[in-house]
């Protein structure tokens, strides 16, 4: 098992340091990452994805990374957030879609003053200022976001208050880095790094997931932060700078290649223009962020000559992932299963290429575990856990999380 000896600050432990970098992709992007991690955790020997040395999360990936770094296993996350043994799912997507009523009220309250200012400007200089120009300040009355992400912060803070877990980067057993972007400077900030490790983990997740337009910027220590994916998709270099010698990367969002997609029920259009504005914008966004990621990763071979980076993502012809709404949490089981099988197939096809790379870090591919192409992720969830590793507190944490999700469901149901 590859892990640090005490805390993430003890970086002098001998041997390889294994890390995980998770990109964004909305709620279903996080579910895709859980499915991919289930496949990797099951098929790789010598590595456990909740006992790594370095975790890096961006946007939705920050939610998954923070939970893993706090000791909840991939299987536990799958049971709680995806399947829960056939019981009704308690983690409702409404946590991501709660209207930002406070923002609406504040912006609406500013309208009378802005109108008065516009009238004064027009009356003062009617010939120099046009009517519309005089009222340009009304743009300030437009809400900065549709949804409120404070519930995410509150419930993560409660979850991380459990015994055996922490909301303090400095007290984690494993190093955790969560990336957000300073709205006023464009600087990418690595929460959890020296100088930025005194911020609560839950608040850093809130900042990293604050996608402009959907969620309001998050104020931390006098600065406003937005989604870390606006600067780069993955920020994998942050984990490499932290000392990871083997870095697993998962990116759920890729641009779609209609010519490479099979003709089946999931391929909705022969040309994306047929899908209208929403599909065109989705393709544009994915193409922009993916191209930046490819440029960044192409430099790692020369910048980090002694490190290995292994990336897993959907292929470009994956119409199922492209046409699934990333905020449609109702499709969670389908997305988890799709990611599970896609990653297993990817591992099998690349096994000869990856085997020597992974072996350098004490990791081996269990080829026998990959031979069943129809295997369901539920079998991975049913894997027996090591009682000595889980400890007594694990059941308490799971029960506590169930209670948190119950209260979350009740609160969101009352407010939406």
How would you describe the shape? globular
Mean pLDDT: 81
Q: What is Rg?
A: 23 Å
Number of helices: 17
Distance between the termini: 45 Å
Number of strands: 10
Which stretches are low in confidence, meaning pLDDT under 50 for 5 or more residues running? 1-13, 86-91, 386-396, 408-416
- In terms of quaternary structure, what is this? single chain
The largest pleated sheet is described as:
8 strands, mixed
Question: Keywords for this structure?
Answer:
416 residues; eight-stranded mixed beta sheet; disordered C terminus; alpha/beta
Would you mind describing this structure in some detail?
This protein is an alpha/beta fold. It has helices at 26-43, 60-69, 74-83, 101-109, 111-124, 131-134, 150-159, 201-208, 236-241, 277-298, 300-303, 319-322, 332-349, 351-359, 377-381, 387-390, 393-415, and strands at residues 18-22, 44-45, 54-58, 175-182, 188-191, 218-220, 223-227, 246-250, 308-312, 364-365. The strands form two sheets. Strands 1, 3, 4, 5, 6, 7, 8 and 9 form an eight-stranded mixed sheet that branches. Strands 2-10 form a two-stranded antiparallel sheet.
Quick summary of this structure?
The chain is of the alpha/beta class.
């Amino acid at each position: 098992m590859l892990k640090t000896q005490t805390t993430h600050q003890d970086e002098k432990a001998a041997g390889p340091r294994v890390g995980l970098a998770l990109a964004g992709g909305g709620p279903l992007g996080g579910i895709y990452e859980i499915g991919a991690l289930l496949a990797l955790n099951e098929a790789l020997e010598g590595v456990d994805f909740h006992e790594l040395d370095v975790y890096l999360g961006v946007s939705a990936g920050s939610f998954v990374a923070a939970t893993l770094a706090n000791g909840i296993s991939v299987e536990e996350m799958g049971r709680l957030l995806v399947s829960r043994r056939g019981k009704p799912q308690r983690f409702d997507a409404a946590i991501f879609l709660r209207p930002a009523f406070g923002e609406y009220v504040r912006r609406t309250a500013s309208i009378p003053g802005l109108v008065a200012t516009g009238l004064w400007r027009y009356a003062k200089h009617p010939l120099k200022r046009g009517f519309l120009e005089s009222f340009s300040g009304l743009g300030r009355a437009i809400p900065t976001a549709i949804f409120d992400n404070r519930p995410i912060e509150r419930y993560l803070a409660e979850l991380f208050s459990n015994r055996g877990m922490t909301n303090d980067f400095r007290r984690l057993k494993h190093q955790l880095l969560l990336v957000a972007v300073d709205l006023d400077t464009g600087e990418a900030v690595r929460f959890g790094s020296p100088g930025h490790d005194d911020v609560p983990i839950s608040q850093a997740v809130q900042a990293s997931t604050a996608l402009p337009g959907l969620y309001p910027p998050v104020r931390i220590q006098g600065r406003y932060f937005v989604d870390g994916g606006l600067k780069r998709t993955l920020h994998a270099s942050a984990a490499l700078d932290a000392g990871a010698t083997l870095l697993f990367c998962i990116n759920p969002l890729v641009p779609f290649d209609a010519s490479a997609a099979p003709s089946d029920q999931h391929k909705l259009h022969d040309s994306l223009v047929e899908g209208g504005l929403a599909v065109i914008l989705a393709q544009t966004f994915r193409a922009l962020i993916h191209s930046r990621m490819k440029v960044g990763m192409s430099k790692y071979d020369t910048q980090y000559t002694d490190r290995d980076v292994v990336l897993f993502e959907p292929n470009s012809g994956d119409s199922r992932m492209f046409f699934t709404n990333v905020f449609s949490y109702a499709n969670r089981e389908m997305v988890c299963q799709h990611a599970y099988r896609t990653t297993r197939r990817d591992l099998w096809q690349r096994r000869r290429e990856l085997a020597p790379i992974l072996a350098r870090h004490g990791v081996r591919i269990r080829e026998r575990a990959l031979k069943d192409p129809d295997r369901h992720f539920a079998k991975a969830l049913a894997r027996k856990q090591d009682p000595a590793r889980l400890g007594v507190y694990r059941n308490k944490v799971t029960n506590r999380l169930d209670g948190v999700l119950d209260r979350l469901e009740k609160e969101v149901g009352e407010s939406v």
